[in-house]
Queue: 2 jobs
Job 1
Amino acid sequence: MIAETSEGPPCLYVCPLSGLSGVAAGLNRFDLLTLLSPDHGGEDHRALACERHRELSFHDITEAVPGFVAPDSATMKAILDFGREAGDRALLIHCWAGISRSSAAAYVIACDRNPGFERDIAEELRRRAPSVTPNRLMVSLADDLLGRGGRMAEAIDRIGRGADAFEGKPYQLPLSWPIG
């Protein structure tokens, strides 16, 4: 479980599906972003007492594959819009393993709110979550939507693949940069 701090600006909270209820229990006011595959059976998130919930269904792939749903510009626009609408509330993001889709979403939301800090955010993401490997297609699509000229994708390429893991550990990523 991650302890929420009442001081300072809100954070992004990221976890795998298995850690969702534990992380949510430690948050007071939060929005929830669920990123799971289309074939995943729906979860009932009403017990989590979130302010708003958005579920997007797509596979964790980085290029078009027949029979699979790849993230696209509309998906990334929905993620960015949801992040913007959260305002000052904490935002809890989860996917199946908490490694690729949810980490990409956290990274692009943080970059959206903090232009010019793409590299710093990527480096802090790696420091806080050694096993994450943000979905490269999601990052590239958001980079284009935000007009960052490849800086977001380059920053993710620079931190490289995360350590091997079946599932990521819950972590927080600040929403306001620069950080102390």
Job 2
Amino acid sequence: MKTDARVRYTKMIIRQCFFRLLRQKSISKITVKEICELAQINRSTFYKYYADPYDLLEKLEEEAILGITQMIDEYPQKGLRPVLITILRAICSNSDFHDLAFLQTQEDFTRRLALACFHKIQMYNPAFSSNGGMLFGCLCGAVSGLLAYWLHSGLKETPEEIADRIILLTEAVQESFTKENIHTM
């Protein structure tokens, strides 16, 4: 079902005003009334799409994560590095990611983003599954931290540099788990 242009515009204005308010104060201090006044919309219009500011934030995060995971699905045969670079470039070019990364839920967002991506990327590296959840958990935590640092430091490194760091990190963690398995046998 196609979304009407007016609906897209209204949601865009709500989003922009929400992010503007988030730059000024925490989400717990933002009211629907403030968002509506800034967006110059009625409260009923806001409630047509969102229950409250937390619901708006959750939907924005879900939308961002879904966009990235769909991107992974579009490039299944390219290999890990090209997929990572595509994801990281999308993060660079999408201001919503920058805004989401600086919210109070920043760690949760980057963790959920890393987790969603790793679930999809498992198809490129069977070693993720072979060591159970421990390897997967370690990698998600490490990559989540790396993404958070990258976003907070102003995206100073290129997507290619970050992709290479993620791959090196992945290889180091996998090697560590492989050695551990050898020593416990």
